Structure formats: C-alpha cells, structure tokens
Amino acid sequence: MLNSIRPYLSYIHGFKTKKKRDRKIDFENLKKSNVNKTKTKSSLDDITWNDLNMDSLFELLNYTNCSAGEETLYSWLKNPVDNEIDYNSRLTKINQAEKRKNEIHELKKAFEKMAYCKYHFEEVIDSEYKSNNLSLGIHCILTIINIVIIVQTLIHGISALLGILLVLFPVNLILHNLFLRKNGVQLEVLQYAIKLIKISKKNLNRINQISPQTSDSVTISINRLKPIMNKETMLFRLEGLDVLADYLNIVFSIKEINYYLIANKVNKMSADIKHLYGQIGELDAVISVIAYRDKLYNYCEPEIISSCNSLTIKEMYHPLLSDVISNSIITSSDVAITGSNMSGKSTFLRTVGVNAILAQSICTCLAKQYKTNYFRVITSISLNDTLTNAKSYFLVEAEAIKRMIDIRKDDYCTLILIDEIFKGTNPIERYAASMEILNTLGEGNTKVLVSTHDMNILDELKGYEYYYFTENVSKDELDFDYKIRPGIANTRNAIKILDYVNYPIEILDSINERINQSEGI
What we know:
Elements: H1 6-12, H2 27-35, H3 46-51, H4 54-61, H5 67-78, H6 84-98, H7 101-114, H8 121-126, H9 133-156, H10 160-202, H11 204-210, H12 212-224, H13 226-231, H14 233-236, H15 242-252, H16 254-268, H17 270-295, E1 303-304, E2 311-316, E3 327-331, E4 334-339, H18 345-361, E5 369-372, E6 376-380, H19 393-406, E7 414-419, H20 427-442, E8 446-451, E9 464-469, E10 471-473, E11 478-480, E12 485-486, H21 494-500, H22 505-518
Parallel strand pairs: 1-5, 4-8, 4-9, 6-7, 7-8
Antiparallel strand pairs: 2-3, 2-5, 9-12, 10-11
Helix pairs in contact: 5-17, 5-18, 6-17, 7-11, 9-10, 9-16, 10-16, 10-17, 11-12, 12-17
C-alpha cells in the first residue's frame, strides 16, 4: 500500500498531528521497562541497537502521549514480532485505528492528560504496598483531634485550643514528611495508576470504536479494579488546589489514611493494573504509528514471505536522513557491496536493517515495496574500542562477528549486516578470516549483506551477488549519488579525497608512486 498523499488525507479527516512536545526521553527508564517485556526471536541486542542509531529513530517516531505508550513503542522496536499471527494482529489494530480519525484525536487528548510517570511504573506497582495499622491509627487519631479543635475554635473563637492546634500541626507535618519519604514513590505511581483507570473508563466508548478487542480487555480490567476506584477518591479530590490542598492534606492526613486503606488491594490487583497499563500502552503506540505515518511522504506495508534468501526492496530510504535518496535491491543471494569511501555503503546497510525492524515492529516500511522473510537483525557496523574494558577494536569486532557465527544454524532466519569485516587487523589475516567467515555465515540460515574494500576476497565468496557504489571526485568537487548498482566497483577515491582537502603535493606524489609499485605499474 503506497501512501504518498497521507498528509493531505490526514487534513481532510480532521486529524492533524501536533508538533512534538519538547520532552527529554528517559532511555534508562525505557531500558528497565523493556526487561520485563516479552522477548521475541527477533529481539535486538545492544550492538545492533547502537549500530542502527535506534535511540535517534525512536525519538523520531515517538508521538506517544503517556508512559504506557512510550514503553510499548520502545518495546516494539526492541522486540520486533517474529510470527504471522502477532504481525497480523498488530497490523489489524493499526489499520482499524486509522479509519477512526476523530476517535483517535479525542483519545490522544485524553492520553495527554495522563502524561508521563517519572518512575518505572510496573516495577513500582510490583513492589509491596504495605498497609500499616499502627500508622493508620495514629493518623486517624490526629485527624479526629484536629477536627475537634477546629470545630471548638469556630464555636468559641480563638483560644488556647488554637494554640494546641499550632502544636499539633508541626507533628502532622513531621509525620507527613516521613510518610512521603517512605511511600512517596509508591503514592505517586498509585496516583498515576488511578488516573489511568479513570481515563480508561471515561473513554471506553472511543476505545471500543477504535479497537473492540482492546475495549473488551480494558472493560474486564476496569471492572476488576473497582475496589480501588471506590476507595481512592480522597487521594485526588483535593488535587488542583495547590497550597490550600497541601495544608488540608497535612492537617487531615488525607493521603496517608487513604493510602493505607487501599495498599493491600493494590498488591492483590497489581496484575490487573499492569494489564490495563499494557492495553492502554498498545493503543497509544498505535496512535503514535499513525501519527508517524502521516509525516511520511512515502511508505508501504511489508509483505512477509517464508524465504530467508529472497529480498525485494524498492525505492527504500532511511528515516533519519533529511535528503531522501532511495535505493532498490532484488536478490535471492547473499550480497557483497564494494565502493569508495563515503559513497554510501554503510548507510545502505543501516537502511536495510532499519526497514527490516520497522517492518516487524510498526508494520511500516520506508519504501515503495518491501517483501522478504521475518528476520532477526544482527549487525557489526559502528563498533568502537572499549577502552574502559581494555578491549581493542579488533577484539570488539571479533566478539561481534562471533555472535553471528553462534546463531547461523538457528531455525529462525537472521539478517546479518557487516560493514568492512575485520578492518581492525592486518591485510593477510583479514583476507583469510573474512573469506572463511563470510562463506561460513552464507551456509547458515542467514541473509548476509557485507561491505568491503577487499576486492581480492570477492572471487572466493560462494553464492554472493555483487553490488557497488561509485562517485565522481576531483580536486574541486566531491560528487556522490549514493545509488547502489549491480556489479563490482572499479574506482577508488582515497587519494582523491586527500587531494580534495589539500594534502601537500609531494605527499600525494609519493603515495601514488607507492601504489603504482605495489600494482606493478
């Protein structure tokens, strides 16, 4: 499905995506939240995530409106679907929602009111909410005393009773601060959970119109959580009164008493709270996908087939590049890519990897056509020396390649993307190791795309097709079209680039003389 007129359609349907809020994303919290998410055969490891600049990609397509949606969207990218049932379910939810623009617009505004929880929601909800009968009794007694004092003061006027009140208020204040120090995080997360329940209940009709399946599940959760809803009112009733609310809360121990009254219920219903959180998260993530699609000038929904070798991608581009340059590749073989420096090899590998992930996470590819198998994407592209761990570049690279070798015979197909294999070692060992390892990887249940400057290994590769990038570099101009072509590169540009940045002519002449000698010219 080609959607090159989405922005116009979004306007006439009344759903115009707002500009993103200026909010810094807490990636550490998102990483924590992903620990408890369901892992798939396609889940990305940290090397692949960093190689493909996935933090930046997440920021680009993150149009979520609440914590639940943000965590879900992050999990979708981190754990792409690996089977037809889950893929079709997600695609159906997205396509159903796209038809209900007005409902999505209203639901988006409702989720914005829920906003973001600054703590790890599920982790805190899973922690033990403790009811303390002694503390509850003390707060109740102090509240009763304060009420009596206030009533007596109103009846008899300012007297010694007011003095007693002024003595008791500091006691309440100290107890209040102790309570917040011990239970403040849990209280804040509980308040967020209650807001989640209220907003979900209020918008059940809209949810039902967007996704009847989700509505049924949300309704069940809300019904199970009624005991919390029936007891929580005073936790929020005074919110919005600012300073007055703070004083009233302290004098009458409102939050403390209500917290202790429902703490045990929260423990018993934590699974239902998390389930509702997940359901709302899916809805918000779906809304985010639709908002992102509305920003794209061109995209397609992928066609997933059961062939690890077959790869058909037409007019594919990278979402993080402002200047859209599309490329196409149709192949049933592994691929070796050659070309000069800066010509586009690394970007092409990243573009393939990112689109494979987007296909299996948000059912959206930045291409005219995307047709291939379900993949686990694994890369070796932007590795760095890990100085703090005393690891050299070659050791880091060797470990990255080793993880590819370890899974090459896995039943689930792996898309392997390697940029300049073993560039961290000497030419003789690089040649031997590259040739053997690439052939070994190619024999597995894999789809291998590798870029290389080592032309001498190409003839030794088994079952690989060749593609290349080229350029036009002169002393006055660097001209790259960044288009991939079938075949093998017959140019190189390293010395031309040195000339372009004005290296001394005597150095350039000496370099060229050495090259001619090594090539027997």
